[in-house]
Amino acid sequence: MRLNIPSFRGIEAFLAAAEAGSMRAAANAMNLTVSAVSHRIQVLETELGVVLFERGGQALRLTAIGARYRKDLLPGLAGMERATSRIRLAADTGKIRVATVPLFYSNWVTPRLNGFLEKFPHVRVELLSLDAKEAEDADLTIRPVYSQHPRAGERKLFGWQGTPICRPELVEKYCLKEPRDLLDVTLIDLKTPLDLWENWFTEAGLSYGMNQNRLLVDSQALMYDAVMQKVGVAIATTFFSQTYLKAGLVRPFAQTCSFRGGMYINAARSDEAPIVEHFRAWLIDEVEQTARQLQR
Q1: Most buried pick, 44, 120, 168, 183, via CB within 10 A?
Q2: What number is the average pLDDT over the span 69-90?
Q3: Which helix (H) or strand (E) holds 91?
Q4: 44 with 125, same domain?
């Protein structure tokens, strides 16, 4: 493809001189002689058939057409820099840093991670806890949101939908056959603004048993640990409970309840490395596949 544009060397010298305000400063910035910079600009002006600078004294001043040319060139130059940055990143073996809550790793990401690594065997994936200092510079941030107001530029991966979960021994011990049977059981509640049990009981047409035994925990990891230890019954989110169901936990009822919020991922950036794009696409595809399986 033949481009109808002048020499990039001339354009580079022109932009450097316009930025620096003098030929000498531009020459120092480009590690060239003043005469070399001046010659490149003169060749560019000849090719364009216009005068780009008002020459006189020590300082350089752009002509009106020179100022317009610079303004028109800058967006294209920025695009070239982004494209070059992306290619350099792609030429690396591939590194990606992900930050999210540990439960999402252990119950969802890591069981599926081999599928991604088989496609990209030379990539280096770094998994960071969301509260780690290094998480501030993560390529992908996946965080739980417990409201209808995520941060700007975030995309919902999946929403919160929950149902009671417990050890099968508790189902037998308390004869858990219908939702009202839970009123005599210790309820394990997760410390969030969602009011999990209250909303679930309301969905089931019952009043929340405020006076019954309850255990309040501040993380889903602690919640599942308490359930595994037969302490009581908890509300489990469908996306996070798969590993524990395989480990022997059961859902005594089919009744589910949807809650506000969900897991959100930061939106793609224009200068995002290709390997980050691949990981994001892989993650979203895996989430969509899981959602379809849960709907069956």
Answers
A1: 44
A2: 73
A3: helix 64-91
A4: no
